[in-house]
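Budget justification note: compute hours in this period were largely spent on complex prediction jobs such as the one shown. Inputs:
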Amino acid sequence: MLIKTINKRTLKDSLKRGGCGECQTSGVANQPCENANR
Amino acid sequence: MLHQFELFGSFFTLDVNSGSLHLTDKFGAEAIKLFEYNSKEECIRLLLDNNNGEISEEELCDFFENLQVLKDEDKLYSPDILPYIKAPNKKDKPLKALCLNVAHSCNLCCNYCFAAAGNFTDKQPLMPLSVGKAAIDFLIESSKGRYNLDVDFFGGEPLLSIDVVKGIVEYARSLEKTHKKHFRFTFTTNGVLLNDDIMEYLNTNMDNVVLSLDGRREVHDYFRKAPNGKGSYDVIVPKFQKFAEIRRDKEYYIRATFTRHNLDFFSDILHMLDLGFNELSMEPVVAVPDSPDAIKEEDLPIIFEQYELLAKEMIDRNKKGKPFGFYHYNITLDEGPCAYKLLSGCGTGCEYMAVTPRGELFPCHRFVGDERFLLGDVFGGIKNHSLVEEFAQNSLLNHEECKNCWAKYFCAGGCAANNFEASGSISGIYAIGCEMFKKRLECALAVKALCAD
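Corresponding output:
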């Protein structure tokens, strides 16, 4: 029995770096965030 | 909240509130489900009673230790983040994008076009440069605090106004340094007027180019006809192939529409791949419910099957080193949009507006022409502030029907125009659209997980 978690970050993590509004207006789940790695 | 589903023999668990996606076998999925409301010891007892000796107690203990770690990290059974987010208002969401309808006329008469077969009933069908410049001024003035600004050239057919487009781009670029702004341009075209010079211009100046093609010749030509009734497939396909070749790594999309007449749209996607296009989008038609083209609830099983065939094809081609992009399956879990963005969606009516050739402002291209949604104009600015505020507050926080939906953080409550047409409210829901979205999302998550390293 194995479990593989595909993503490392969570939505809660994004609360700390999000909301700058610099992402493109579009489904909205496919746009990379410029601040994701800061 | 958990959402569990099976696709292609694999078992997926999405932890809705954290966005964490977990891939397991069948027993793993069952264990995750049990552990939500039962103790580890109770889960192990239940699983040992029901697995015919396939799994040992030691294996189960190890597995539940892993689940406990994920639970402690808030990646399983995580609490909702909505209470931590304050309701947005228009002060939080200044304008950052305009859809410029530079032409309200068209050289095709596509039956399903939401813009009255491409020909709005305007007395002024083409946007003068003066209106385009005023729109850029309005965008700069209204976007305080923003750096990236988006302008989408749309219509009608924007190539009918290509000289105005060039003037607008030149004007916007001339203001970037002074106002500390960066413009990103998108251009949507039916391709009929494309020639070498225009291709070169679009390739150099547009960040994204959207090319309208519906797939197989008979499907495309059934809807996308010239005024003389002749289909446009043979005219545009060689041009699109040439443009895709010169575009190379720059962004472009083949943008297709499917209707009740081609519910087997996976065949259209395969056809477009055969033509050499590798960035594809296939959208369900926007049509009034009694239209013969409109998607009906009874069509959903075949549509779901088509989405699964597409996902399987993407996984297979990815394994063979020949990947292609499908807009709705390009999902970014780790570096994607933040919770604030996921809460409020596309920004229509506050961050994003559409401009008519006369300079009128509407919430987006879908609301253009509906006087109930007239916001103001690019010369005098916003007149209907209460409507802008209503759109600014239109987020997941006030979508009652979305609160218990597992897909809410991926769709942000859906398209306001679709919601309005289906329910009479921008915060209502378009139920058939919801079902298609959820199926696409399951497929996208499966593709993401099964193509991950």
